[in-house]
Each structure stands twice: as structure tokens, then as C-alpha cells.
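Aim 2 progress update. The chain analyzed this quarter is reproduced below.
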Amino acid sequence: MANSNPDIKYTQLFINNEFVDAVSGKVFPTVNPSTGKKIVDVAEGDKADVDLAVQAAKAAFQRSSKWRQMDASARGKLIYKLAELMERDLHQIASLESLDNGKPYMSAVYDVYGSMNCLRYYAGWTDKVCGETVPSDGPHLTYTRKEPFGVVGQIIPWNYPLLMLAWKWGPALAAGCTIVMKPAEQTPLTALYMCSLVKEAGFPPGVVNVVPGYGPTAGSAVTMHPDIRKVAFTGSVEVGKIVMAGAASNLKKVSLELGGKSPLVICDDVDVNEAAQIAYTGVFENMGQCCIAATRTFVQEGIYDAFVQKATELAKGRKVGNPFSQGIQHGPQIDDTQFKKILGYIETGKKEGAKLETGGVQVGDEGYFIEPTVFSNVTDEMTIAKEEIFGPVQSIIKFKTLEEAIERANATSFGLAAGIVTKNLNNALTFSNAVEAGSVWVNTYLAVSNQAPFGGYKQSGVGREMGKEGIEEYLETKTVSIKLPSKV
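Predicted C-alpha cells:
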């Protein structure tokens, strides 16, 4: 069950199936966002440690290695066993996630199940990665092979530490790659615990390596390393651009899942209570620290006032507090930097003329808690309607026609997700076809699944995660042509 003071066994780097100190001997603190106090010191990796991790990953990827010689089906069984071990240790992992990230314990449990299911999904893919025969010209047998890239670098964020690990490990391992991962410096504890399960499951040494550390040092070393063939990053647009520039050093393949300013369009033909609930979930999930959060809530003028009233009521009723307390729906923001940034956006919203309906202030006198916040009378040119806040702030914007809403929804450099709530099928299809976003949800929101590709348009990303497309991001295509005596 929930344990607000879980035993923390793993705080070192994980390289070649062993927990080791950083070469420099440095450590850094990981902080409990509910209190602002240090949980524990973690080994701080940098370039020297990334070099050692890549060396181990390269050795594990040699043609004669145990990993490369393993049957694809056996690789799937290993991934599945990892998920089984996660289920065994469910409450320990969820407690670590809740402690380190601040999300309510039951949300952390949900994330553990989601991560297990992601790994199980990709465990089933290992022996289903197939090439094709090609009807080429001339007397040739031509076929394609799908081959793993090799050593891949992965950099994950702090908002869904365990889920983002599974989203990265699952397809990379299914493809047959080896991994060097840098978890977010704010939330390294569950990644390190997962390393202990990797070893217990029986993965060969060097297949999975985890180097906690900071972005400008450990993260940069991953993106710049000449022996890493592909880098996958989830995080901000700003850092995504840095990763892409670093990857150009040896023309690594890059996949980026970046930020968003996602529109949710509420048409006037819906039940206001139901629509407000969908929007409420879409914006306040994970304390608003969600790249697909529906932070631009467009509401048709005929139901605008009623919607604002209901949205305000829902936000006021959201229970904020210690993530290990029963019934809590809303924990703290991740750290002091994010806390101050969000409060700054709220002040800007007020100064620029938006109407603060509820929230907007700190809760309690310790930790990084912010009341769920609702603004009405928001216009497109306001800062809170344009920039990604990454916090519990709902901006409710009025519109007249669907065509107008589509144009305004698309007037952004982001394109990660979008949604519409309507009873009109024509409205749903018109919006879904016209909006510039990688995921579109109709009469629901946050409907992400392991089977469906996920990623963004425009500056919200490059490539896709999840589904068949997710594993393809870790595969090269090789074409083989063999001359035959005659055309057959």
C-alpha cells in the first residue's frame, strides 16, 4: 500500500547491470515537492559516465553478443517479465513516484499500470517486426530487413517519469536496440528502481543503462555522443531545439515529443455539465503539468456564461494537498522554479485583463501547491492564451462559429493535441480534419493508448511514439537485392 516514506535503495548510476558512483564522485539532491526538502542525494553523471554507459551499450550490441543473438520471441519474454516484476512491486514504485514527483498516490498507481501495459504491448511486438519482398525490375530477388539502430539515447521529463520511461524503453527494446537514458534531475528515483528490475529480469549487461544528471552536462553528452545512433527526447520546445542541434553532430535520428497549447472547442449543442467535466479533466490532470493539457478552452457564446460557472465550481471543488492523503486529487507543482513561473503567469493574466474566477494562489506554507485556477474573458493575444504554462490554469475563450474556432485554434506554433465536444457529427469531422494537431479527441480528452501513435505537428515534435509507429522510430530499413538466373 501507499508509503509516504519508502525505502530508497538505489541512488547510483546504472551501467552494465551494476549500480556505480559517478566518475567525479558528485551527487545532487532530489527534492520532495510537497515539502521543498531533500529526499536523498543521487549520483550526478556527466560526460565521463555517459561515455562508460555508451561503451557498455555498444558491447551489448555487438553482433556476437547475447542480446543480438537472442531470439526475438525471447526478447519479448524478457520485456514481459520486466512488467511482471513491476506488478509485484507496484506499491513500492508508486510510492517512490508520488514522493519524488508529487502526484497523488492513486495517480501514481495508475501510471505504474499504464507503464506495465506499455511494456506488455511492446513485448508482443518483438517477433512481429517484418520486412517485405519487393517486386523489383530485372531478375532480382529484392527484400527489406528491419534492423535496430544500435545504441540509442533517451532523455525523459519529470511530469510522467515512469510512463515516459516505458514509452521509451518499450519500443527500443522491442526493436533490439540498447539504451543510455538520462532521467529528469527532478525525478530520478523510479528510473533507478526500474534498473534493479532490469537486472532481476535477466537482461544482459549493457542493454539498459541509466545516467542521472543535469541537461547541460549529462543530457548534452547523450545528444552529442558520436556512438549514439538515435536520440529520443520528451520535454520543452526550447530544449528540443538544443537536442536537435546536438544530434546534428553525427546526424543522429531524432524523435522529439515537445510542448503544446492545446485547444478544446466546446460547441453550444452539448450538455454544459458534461462538457465542463471533460475540460476540467483535460486541464487539471497531473496538476496541469501535461504537454497535452487543454489550456485553451474555446466555448461557444451561447453557453459561455453557464460553462464558466460550472468550470469554476469544478475547480473550487478539487481537493489539493499531501499526495499520500486519501481523497487528494491535486498535489504540488514539481519544484520552486515551476511554482514561481506558474504564479507569474497568473499575475500576467490578471494584469492583461483576464477575469480570475477562482484560484491563483499558493496553498499552505510549505511545498509547491497552487490552487486550481480558472480565467474567463481570455482573448487570443493574452500571454496566458499563447504560452505553455504547464500548470493548473484554465483559460476560457469565447467564440461564435466553428470556422472561427478552427482558425483561432490553429493560430499557434504548437500542434500536439486538440479536442471538440459536440453532438453534431459534421462539426466533429470538420474540426478533426481541419485542426493542426497530432491527436484529436471528440467528446473526450486525454484518450492516449498504447496502440495509437502519439506526437505533434509544427513545434510540438518530430516523429511518433506508441503504436506501430513507435517501434519504427528505432528501426533502420535495409534493402537487399540478389541477382537470379532469370526473372521468376
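The chain has a mean pLDDT of 97. The longest helix spans residues 105-123. These observations will guide the mutagenesis experiments scheduled for the next reporting period.
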